[in-house]
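Recap for those who missed Tuesday's class. We walked through two folding examples back to back. For each one, the amino acid string is listed first and its predicted structure tokens come directly after. Nothing is annotated here on purpose, so try labeling regions yourself before you check the end of the notes.
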Amino acid sequence: MMVVAEVVVVVVVVVTAAAIVVVVVVVVVVVVVVVVVVVVVVVVVVVVVVVVVVVEVVVVVEVVVVVVVVEVVVVVVVVVVVVVVAVVVVVVVVLLLVEVVVVLVVVVVVVVVVVVVVVVVVVVVVVVGSSSCSSSSSK
């Protein structure tokens, strides 16, 4: 009976370790995704700032009103596009984080259920084994 209990303990340890590894991998992936998204947003903002500065210089140099209006429209369109892209990126990151939290909760619940079942099985095996040993030794 002790062999069964030892095997059950080893299985619990292995399952718990595997769950911890899965959680760590998921967290690392999320961190990498967030870093990539932040880098992309920073690059987009830098590009927009450069475009706006260049457009402003062109606008200052130009004398024709039509060109000024066109340049202002271009700046507004670029800013709107950047804002829309930034909002989409933030929504995607939030959805990814929510998905990761759900996965982590499921993993934790599964590990807790497995540990509880294994503990119950070990207790039952030990109680039945000790009662059968004591009843057979008393005869």
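Example two. Treat it independently of the first, because the proteins are unrelated.
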Amino acid sequence: SKLPDVMDVPYLLAIQLDSYREFLQAGASKDQFRDVGLHAAFKSVFPIISYSGNAALEYVGYRLGEPAFDVKECVLRGVTFAVPLRVKVRLIIFDKESSNKAIKDIKEQEVYMGEIPLMTENGTFVINGTERVIVSQLHRSPGVFFDHDRGKTHSSGKLLYSARIIPYRGSWLDFEFDPKDCVFVRIDRRRKLPASVLLRALGYSTEEVLNTFYTTNVFHVSGEKLSLELVPQRLRGEVAVMDIHDETGKVIVEQGRRITARHINQL
């Protein structure tokens, strides 16, 4: 005998298929897009405002093309089952001479952004001809990471230190020392530049850069006399080349003695 079915078995792949279909919103027009998935990701990035504020790039919508091959042919050819993604953007140019940011020109253009994989009817992806259920991707946690080369780069065995800044979104920044203790920066692991170039691009002046990395001495000119402003903290650990007196004339540090933290507090 055969027991009757108590309940219908649900189509378990529907969860994955419906979720990815909602992510792409394929077939929907820009007026029908809901604020989810790929559409929400683009909206979170745009608009992009130029540094001068005279131009803005806005997101209008996107559309998915048709796949070049079907699933079986992608497996045979060893290619990815994907469709082209084209995004329509709007460039707005503002009048520089206008005080209320009057619009000078508007241009719209469709930009090819790349290929996006499609999910098959079985809830899988075809990547380079191989059918996969899960497409893994290594994602580094955002933050600041410090490291050194363990002395393997330079013949002297000197440790060359480096720092990497990984943001939540955007370009990676790598700061590194060379054997001459000069600091360089790489943007997205490309050609290295002096770190001062990046600081200047961020708006720092030459004086601000020097004051950040170097200690400065302040001199006072009075007639033909030139006096140096004393910073006691810099004298710690130095040997006094002469007797150092306080305002009352009392000797605090004798000549030839090493200046300690106690002496600095008295100064």
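Answers for example two:
The mean pLDDT is 87.
Residues 115 and 157 are 46 Å apart (CA to CA).
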